[in-house]
Amino acid sequence: xxxxxxxxxxxxxxxxxxxxxxxxxxxxxxxxxxxxxxxxxxxxxxxxxxxxxxxxxxxxxxxxxxxxxxxxxxxxxxxxxxxxxxxxxxxxxxxxxxxxxxxxxxxxxxxxxxxxxxxxxxxxxxxxxxxxxxxxxxxxxxxxxxxxxxxxxxxxxxxxxxxxxxxxxxxxxxxxxxxxxxxxxxxxxxxxxxxxxxxxxxxxxxxxxxxxxxxxxxxxxxxxxxxxxxxxxxxxxxxxxxxxxxxxxxxxxxxxxxxxxxxxxxxxxxxxxxxxxxxxxxxxxxxxxxxxxxxxxxxxxxxxxxxxxxxxxxxxxxxxxxxxxxxxxxxxxxxxxxxxxxxxxxxxxxxxxxxxxxxxxxxxxxxxxxxxxxxxxxxxxxxxxxxxxxxxxxxxxxxxxxxxxxxxxxxxxxxxxxxxxxxxxxxxxxxxxxxxxxxxxxxxxxxxxxxxxxxxxxxxxxxxxxxxxxxxxxxxxxxxxxxxxxxxxxxxxxxxxxxxxxxxxxxxxxxxxxxxxxxxxxxxxxxxxxxxxxxxxxxxxxxxxxxxxxxxxxxxxxxxxxxxxxxxxxxxxxxxxxxxxxxxxxxxxxxxxxxxxxxxxxxxxxxxxxxxxxxxxxxxxxxxxxxxxxxxxxxxxxxxxxxxxxxxxxxxxxxxxxxxxxxxxxxxxxxxxxxxxxxxxxxxxxxxxxxxxxxxxxxxxxxxxxxxxxxxxxxxxxxxxxxxxxxxxxxxxxxxxxxxxxxxxxxxxxxxxxxxxxxxxxxxxxxxxxxxxxxxxxxxxxxxxxxxxxxxxxxxxxxxxxxxxxxxxxxxxxxxxxxxxxxxxxxxxxxxxxxxxxxxxxxxxxxxxxxxxxxxxxxxxxxxxxxxxxxxxxxxxxxxxxxxxxxxxxxxxxxxxxxxxxxxxxxxxxxxxxxxxxxxxxxxxxxxxxxxxxxxxxxxxxxxxxxxxxxxxxxxxxxxxxxxxxxxxxxxxxxxxxxxxxxxxxxxxxxxxxxx
Length: 996
Ligand code: PMP
Prior knowledge:
- By secondary structure, this protein is of the alpha+beta class.
- The chain is built from 27 helices and 38 strands.
- The mean pLDDT is 95.
- Bound molecules: 4'-deoxy-4'-aminopyridoxal-5'-phosphate.
């Protein structure tokens, strides 16, 4: 029989429901479904069931939806639209055959399958939605719910008969393992589990999420209740999780989000949680076996192979996860202690602390020890990786211990560290991929060769000579037992080779027996001599590969697997520094203590504790690629700049009323980089201070007050500069222009009046300045200055059209004004083609203002001007800035110039920026939302538009992109009067791979 036409649907809607509608066919495997739109624009779905369908299952669905509408009215679900006679469904002759016909309200939304990305919030909300539905259905019953469906996860055992259909033996074995686990763990437990009517098929075509504009996006509705059945409650989240994890890089955490959401609305029992992993694997096994069976029947259908691929991939990934680790992950997602018996081990150790023999032979309760800070934000380590090189670090640790009068150094448990630099600690190849950072043991730093003793009686579980694995060295694991018979382990890493002689697997040890000694580099894994001591509640069959350092995203699970070793060691609590405030605590302290209009970037604020070159690191050690902070010009924490400032600060920092060569040396270097006649410097502390001074210079020189500025410009935060910053005085909280301020249009050849294809654009934009000049003269006002960024950054990463500044400067000078170039954002080689922005326009300003990158983050700014202007300013009033030009700031500025030259960073900016811009332009050609990509060197902007033709700005999209970039480890920012330009202005060490 042929499928129904839209004409059939129109007829049915009219005859059965008395509706005049427009109809559109919807996809459906067996049934015929139509989207109907009525005259009143209300939408519904007309459903015509397959031939021969008994009414029971349709009745079940109608009753479930009606029941849910009554019990959980706030859930957004399809509602049954009865016939005018009040029937939920009816039988009609369609093409001469009787069919069941019914109608549901249409729920708008995007199917989860088409939503990207599946954020954590989205998956959590999916679980929660299902939990709310199931919670409402606990007392629901219907005879038709007793169904025998191959997708019933409580009856997955049927696949055993079909395993032979899986041709690949490796894959067959994979499914066989999942099935065995199901038969051993799930089947015997089924009888004790809660049963209920469940949806049973929350696949990503049955889940609707809200529209892309909503942030964060959430699952809002569930459709297609055709697979509803009476099964075990836990099968619902297991099925949903099995779908949700498909195609995910980290399937376990995707599944855990769904489970957490479900549990938050409809709590799972511990017994149910324990079955989630085998159930999820069983569900994927049913999918792939079903596909294999179909393939055996229809060998030529390529679609089957395509559609089964994600399930195979997921099975492979899940099988690499220890089932108990998965169990602990789900327990944690449900707010339970991850390892169920970990608390019992911890309790026993607390009660038996006095029984523990000292691991290093000295009682750490009484012996002076010193706790090191090896955290991401450690001032002891700093950011320079060279510091953690073995010999240097060993020496520093020894020196620090001597200075503290301590014989034992302690490295902290649960500390996030960046010292684990090898690929073995990375989850992927990109520098921004998550690395293992959380230390799960305690380090005891002492002399190499110092003996190590068993703290508790036990048995040698494993001795391994891991010298080949440079991150570990010889290693020992002892097995112990609590009085109640609970097994746990202690691990000793970075030993000397003698541990191999002291111990052999199975040997009994008593508390206080020597089991090894502290190793020396390189045999100990090439670390400064120390013992890595760790407690393990479940070895997860990992043996010597049990990690000593964990991913921060799995922190609580690993802490439950490896509780605090200080339970055994007993280092007094007061030796440890107070814990660092959490991000949330820092945020609330900031809200309470700091002025609120000091803004914070990103929807999810970042706490950054370390910077190195083009990377920033949060407190967990997560790396972020910094693509928009131009202040650390030569790289965050560049060691040459750091050393220059540190050494000078350790010798002298004072004001400029004494002679000091740093000031003159620096001024000499700076002016040497400027064209004549720019030869006189004023050194200050911030660009705001410098722009203020530039205005004073201009007014002193001209004797006039009026200033011409560019629209959307920002020149600084002082009162005087807010007055010349339209971005501020015309923005929120602004009070409009002062009478002496005149705003010229921004010469934006993408969005402005004259476009890039107009060779006269520069001259035409300059005419607007000329018009202001004329007007001022006509009104009898003198002009003090024209001030502009030479490539406006706040204005939206704008590149002036050729000839613009030359024309402007001509008009301004003719009226007696001076020309101020604000080079705060673009100076110092970033543009690649030129060292200064004004050079790109072939002009020489009268006053140049420098800031931001000038000191690589050290407070420093400068004004460079002509002898004539400086001479007029020298009118008898003393000029003095307390910190301006101090020896430390000048030392930092000199080091920046040295690094720029020695590392050829301007050339580098030209090369990398050129490639990056070409790539961005290529993307612009392919994605309509990217209206324009522009810039020079590593000063680039990408402008997002709703419509390419009208160039209507897309600020929401820009904000979305920047927040998603942040989530994937890339920090970019937004600029431009319409907040739609993504700014790319990274520290100059930014390389080709970063650009990619
Ligand atoms: N001029 C320009 C072009 C700027 O972008 C800024 C800061 N964003 C300033 C001046 C003021 O700099 P500061 O905050 O260092 O005083």
